[in-house]
Amino acid sequence: MKYAVSLSLLTVLIITFLLGGTFIFLIKHELAVDIPWLRHKEANILHSAANENIESFHNDRKKILVLHSYDSEMPWVKLEEEGIKSVFQQEKQAILSFDYMDTKYNITPDYLSNLYKFYEQKYKGKKFDAVIVTDDAAYDFARTYQQTLFPLTPIIFCGVNYFNEADIKDKEWVTGVIEDVDIKDTIDVALALQPQVKKIVVINDETAVGKANKQLLEKSMPVFKEKVQFVFLEKMAMSEVLEQVAALSDDTIVLLMTFNVDKNDTIFSYEESGSLIGAKSRVPVYCFWDFYLQDGMLGGMITSGYNQGKTAGQMARKIVFEGAKLADMPVVTESTKQYMFGFNALRKAGIKEEQLPAGSVIVNKPVTFYETYKSLVWFLMVLFVVLLFLVTVLAININRRRKVEEEIRQLNRALENQVSERTRALQDTNSTLRQTLEDLHQARRHLVESEKMALLGELVAGIAHEINTPIGNSITAISHLTMLTGEFNQKFLGGQMKRSDLETYLESCNKVSKIITTNLDRAAELIRSFKKVAVDQLVEERRNFDLKEYIQDVLISLNPQLKKTQHKINVTCPEGINVYWYPGAFWQIISNMLNNSILHAYDPEESGTISITISYEAGIITLIYADDGKGMEAEVQKKIFEPFFTTRRGTGGTGLGMHIVYNLVVFKMKGTVECASQLGNGTVFTIKLPERT
């Protein structure tokens, strides 16, 4: 039972280990989920810096240059770049190069002229399959110098605010996606979410970008002049702006355009200005670009740098890898914008998610464990159900094993009872074997010993029956001699004895003595053979014995069983093979195989031939036992050595005989046993045993 439980626990541990490995893999997979508007994971792209030598480019790969207007640390530039990378991360043949013009604070004509001369030297002799330019400065630069820097190379732009279709009318090598800032939709959604608003405070700076944004706002303002009042916070220091927004009333909202430079010429990045104003403002702050979506910003109709870059990347990919013609790809005028809102700002303003426009994206929203690891939760549930099912199956299996073991114990008790009954019967008929049977009864501890006792019981019964015949003949002869002696004595005492009477009496005495001698010799031979094999069964010690002579003793001891059949036993064994074995185990092997043949290989009254052939080579004794009986099917042959397997259960078969043979050969005598059989062609057992075990 403990082995069954151990195996079951081992099975559960193995399955848990395998499922646990899968679980860890899924955790790693979940932690790698991409969240585009927060931080896109690094794309798996083969790329090189723009200042790499021309030798680094492989001829069989597609080279794409990404030319940014600003420096690499600007949030907008990072988002555009990540959007471009996301398109090419699965394209192993794509080599992306990145260059940064840094025109945010270097916008003078001399700078651009010198930058052109630098690029002319840098990209001389280099051929790109496409050039992606981001934002207005790079767009204008590429249109101006494309024929000298990148001749015959497609130009795809994104993030362009001041687009005029006439600028590319005669330039069939230019297309892209414009940056469309939707101020009107943002104000509309703000008034829908907060209908009490009467005043909109606009925060803007005096930079060129700020002035351009103000012009866009002024185009939309007439639509709302009946509803709200617009107030501009311009030409202020950052401290003044923060003081103003901290004191706003509840009927006010803030529109953050751009505020990168205050009146003191202090420079603020988009992230810095957005964080400061969003944190300090007493009322919701609406914005138009995704890089502003910090914790304090409420959002609006947002233009996404990531989506801008991704759209431009998709257009470049179609041209480079799918062979699309640039002329068939018109400029995307409908910008890739969408409603995006900050979770914390929504809560602060008391705005519920169901009030937002359909399809709105909420950023910085705390994600529940279930939402973050939804597949993991389901995996764990399935894992629990699977393990519960396995435990249930194993419990059922253990319960079945217990029932089988109980059946085995009952069978063992039945066998012990049967052996006990046979033992008592033998004790009644043969007092000389009583002590032997008592010793065997004490030594019987398991099923194999029970079967062994059953065989020994049959042996004793057969020997007792066999001895009765010569002893009975001897008693009859002696009785007859006694009667003749009485008659002879009467004639002698009466003086009537003749010479012929003496001769007759002497002749009778001679015949009777021969009969007695022959029968007693037969009984002595039977007793000698029985004593040898019986002692071997009891002692279970190894000793040296002649193999051929011992086989003859075994057959003599089994003669009572063999006489009931019509089978012929042929033994072929060379002279002088002396072995150091367990003789009792060898007797059990031969007797069990003979009993197996008598019981299973032949029908009653059927005669057959059983052969036992012994050979010796290199210290290995080979015993080939063969009968010409019925043979067996392949399925039966596979189970021939299994305990309790029998095809004659209820008619004398216990299913232990060949199992005992297997255990004695393999475990006790350190040998091997094989069975070969075909239905209708008899059975052959090949046993190989070392000369000394």
Explain what you see.
Helix 15 (499-539) packs across helix 18 (583-601) and helix 16 (547-557) crosses helix 18 (583-601). It contains 20 helices and 20 strands. The protein has helices spanning 2-31, 75-88, 109-122, 135-149, 183-193, 208-220, 238-245, 270-280, 305-321, 343-349, 369-372, 374-429, 434-443, 447-493, 499-539, 547-557, 559-563, 583-601, 634-638, 657-668; strands at 46-49, 62-68, 94-100, 130-134, 155-160, 174-178, 199-203, 229-233, 252-256, 285-286, 297-303, 337-342, 361-363, 543-546, 568-572, 578-581, 609-617, 620-627, 672-677, 683-690. It is rod-shaped, with a radius of gyration of 53 Å. Strand 7, helix 6 (208-220) and strand 8 form a beta-alpha-beta unit. It is of the alpha/beta class and 693 residues long. A seven-stranded mixed beta sheet has the order 8-7-9-10-11-12-13. It has a six-stranded parallel beta sheet with strand order 1-3-2-4-5-6, with helices on both faces. The model is unreliable at 1-5 and 30-58 (pLDDT under 50). It starts with a helix and ends with a strand.
Q: How do you describe this structure in short?
A:
The protein contains 20 helices and 20 strands.
Which helices and strands occur, and which strands form pairs?
Blueprint: H1 2-31, E1 46-49, E2 62-68, H2 75-88, E3 94-100, H3 109-122, E4 130-134, H4 135-149, E5 155-160, E6 174-178, H5 183-193, E7 199-203, H6 208-220, E8 229-233, H7 238-245, E9 252-256, H8 270-280, E10 285-286, E11 297-303, H9 305-321, E12 337-342, H10 343-349, E13 361-363, H11 369-372, H12 374-429, H13 434-443, H14 447-493, H15 499-539, E14 543-546, H16 547-557, H17 559-563, E15 568-572, E16 578-581, H18 583-601, E17 609-617, E18 620-627, H19 634-638, H20 657-668, E19 672-677, E20 683-690
Parallel strand pairs: 1-3, 2-3, 2-4, 4-5, 5-6, 7-8, 7-9, 9-10, 10-11, 12-13, 15-17
Antiparallel strand pairs: 11-12, 14-16, 17-18, 18-20, 19-20
Helix pairs in contact: 1-12, 2-9, 3-4, 7-8, 12-13, 12-14, 14-15, 15-16, 15-18, 16-18, 18-20
